[in-house]
Amino acid sequence: RRLENELHKALQLDEFILHYQPQIDVKTNSIIGMEALIRWEHPTRNLLYPNDFIALAEESGLIVPIGQKVLELACKQCKDWQEMGHTDLRIGVNLSQIQLRQPDLVESVRRVLEMTGLEPSFLELEITESIAMHNTDLVIEQLNGLVALGVQISIDDFGTGFSSLSYLSKFPIHRLKIDRSFITNITNKSESAIVSSIVGLAQNLNLGVIVEGVETELQRITLPALGCHEMQGYLFSRPMPAIQFGSILESRI
Ligand code: G
Ligand code: G
Ligand code: MN
Ligand code: NA
């Protein structure tokens, strides 16, 4: 209850901020985009992370206005960086299954895009596989509505959802984000077989693919041979505040 009240207040007082983690194309060594990750600048505690409050935000329904705020901040920030000359930068935003069930989701995403001026194709909404297992018809309808706006959809933590792959042909999706658990021992034969199979699946379905959780140089040099050259992970950078991300963008131009 108490944390719930605090979440309410945090929303009113604008205590939610976003950190950004770069996504790199190692072929060109360029930043192709970033994932927005929410943080809570709590007035008396240290910076709070999603694991500290997202579950409660979902239970209480506050994830809806919080998620709306996240979308606004993320789209605005992406547009700002594009206007600084990083014209092809895309932004990934995590979508909760609660948000995905809101009847007005498509309309509110449309409004955020209009308000911020971000071209829809640069917004990538991340959903997890487990979302695909519930409310399939509603989810497909919502995703179709989002895609009709021109927004991109990616599957987060791909391969960990224990769900049937049949959703891949039913859902309008654009990219698979390969979960970091598949690359912990990338020189292991069966692990690299799994990764290259996922890449092959993505290619055959005409989907983009990015690997998450890249932490080592060995992973960075091994993954391209398996067909994957878009990467995200601590090796390149931890998620960081906008100001820091902005200066890295500027220094790399
Ligand atoms: O950096 P990290 O601790 O940020 O994120 C932990 C988890 O929280 C990830 O699974 C991520 O998908 C989720 N998360 C981060 N930001 C958001 C957000 O804005 N909305 C939702 N629903 N989940 C988020
Ligand atoms: O949305 P998703 O579940 O993919 O959330 C990304 C989560 O992974 C965030 O908590 C982010 O901070 C974390 N993360 C990003 N890069 C790395 C990495 O290289 N290693 C690990 N262990 N976690 C990472
Ligand atoms: Mn994500
Ligand atoms: Na993930």
From TrEMBL:
Superkingdom, natural source: Bacteria
Signal peptide: none
Protein name: EAL domain-containing protein
EAL domain sequence ranges: 1-253
